[in-house]
Amino acid sequence: KKNWLAFHGLFCCRVKIDSSYKMFAQIVVLFIALLCSTNGFVPSSRIVRNSMKLKMSEAGPGEIFVPDMTRRTTMNAILVGAIGVSTLGLAIPYIAFFVPPSSGGSGGGVVAKDALGNDVTVAGWKESHSSGARELVQGLKGDATYLILDENKNMADFALNAVCTHLGCVVPWNKAENKFMCPCHGSQYNKEGKVVRGPAPLSLALAHREESADGKVLLRTWTETDFRTGEAPWWK
Question: What is the pTM of this model?
Answer without folding.
Answer: 0.57
